[in-house]
Design brief:
By secondary structure, the protein is of the alpha/beta class. It has one domain (about 5-255): 3-Layer(aba) Sandwich (Rossmann fold). The chain has eight helices and eleven strands. It has helices spanning about 55-65, 85-95, 110-120, 130-140, 155-170, 185-200, 215, 240-245; strands at about 10-25, 30-40, 45-50, 70-75, 80, 95-100, 175-180, 205-210, 220-225, 230-235, 255. The strands form two sheets. Strands 6-7-8-3-9-10-11 form a seven-stranded mixed β-sheet, sandwiched between helices. A four-stranded antiparallel β-sheet has the order 2-1-4-5, with helices on one face. A hairpin with a 2-residue loop joins strand 1 and strand 2 (about 30-40). The structure holds adenosine-5'-triphosphate and magnesium ion.
Length: about 260
């Protein structure tokens, strides 16, 4: 008997309907995404995998609204992002979204600490003590000692961890992380994955891109892209579900067809 993903009882949070993204390039068209139909539910923990150039970052940019589809619709909480102005979208991002960019994009003129403080300052009415939260996040990615350095004074892996801390600063309801462990040693990657797991446990929705299939398997669901299309959408059980499923001798992996909903 298939085991239902606990998160699916919750409302659809992100919905992509027949999304295509084309980039015109010197007379030809690069089809980065084609016919993407994907629904992500509140509280889900989703990894996105696929070869280099398969469209993973483009897919993340469609969800964050940093870029827009050529065709199709992206709906967040039932709202078509196409209908929001850039200002509305930026406001929404500050209040609801944390983004770890593939190439970090820390602000070079701000220290690590100030990079982490910034999203809290931009968030409307963020009531938690900013400095305490920044300290806690920098400890969680083991960067507290380097909080006063500027991004250029950090290694790639350190910048990546700083980017994770910054993305979580505004306690976002959705975290989008494009290869958050790509430049990390296995122990550093484990710490970052622990932070992502805690974020999901706190009821947030986490979507991350990775090239590492073991890292991908931490999530409860893995979406595989190939040439801009979803070719696989696999759900696995969370630890909690595994425990209750093993009590009932339930099935451990539930394959669902690609292009769900
Ligand atoms: N701004 C752009 N202009 C033209 N082509 C682009 C642009 N952005 C992405 N592409 C192309 O779209 C395709 C998908 O790119 P994307 O960056 O989404 O891949 P990816 O899966 O994230 O790859 P990687 O694993 O290397 O980060 C690639 O063929 C890429 O060259
Ligand atoms: Mg990418």
């Amino acid at each position: 008997m298939p085991v239902e993903n606990k998160a699916q009882a919750k409302p659809a949070l992100i919905r992509m309907e027949s999304v295509a993204k084309y980039f015109p390039m010197s007379g030809e068209v690069i089809k980065a995404l084609e016919d993407i139909n994907l629904t992500i539910y509140e509280g889900e923990f989703v990894s996105v995998v696929g070869r280099s150039g398969s469209g993973k970052s483009t897919l993340m940019n469609m969800i964050t609204g940093i870029d827009h589809p050529t065709y199709g619709e992206v709906l967040i909480g039932g709202v078509k992002t196409r209908l929001l102005s850039e200002n509305e979208m930026a406001r929404w991002r500050c209040n609801n979204l944390g983004i770890v960019f593939q190439f970090y994009q820390l602000i070079p003129v701000l220290s690590v600490m100030d990079n982490v403080l910034l999203p809290m300052q931009l968030h409307d009415g963020f009531s938690v003590d900013h400095t305490d939260r920044a300290e806690q996040l920098l400890h969680s990615v083991d960067l507290w000692q380097k909080k006063d350095r500027f991004p250029a004074q950090l290694s790639g892996g350190e910048q990546q961890r700083a980017a994770v801390a910054r993305a979580l600063a505004n306690d976002p309801s959705i975290l989008i992380a494009d290869e958050p462990t790509g430049n990390l040693s296995s122990s550093e990657a484990k710490s970052v994955m622990d932070v992502l797991k805690q974020t999901v446990s706190a009821g947030r929705t986490v979507i991350y891109v990775t090239h590492d299939l073991d890292i991908a398997a931490t999530a409860w669901r893995t979406v595989t892209l190939s040439d801009g299309r979803i070719i696989k959408d696999e759900k696995r059980l969370s630890k909690y579900q595994k425990r209750s499923a093993s009590k009932k001798n339930g099935q451990q992996i539930h394959q669902i067809p690609s292009q769900t909903d």
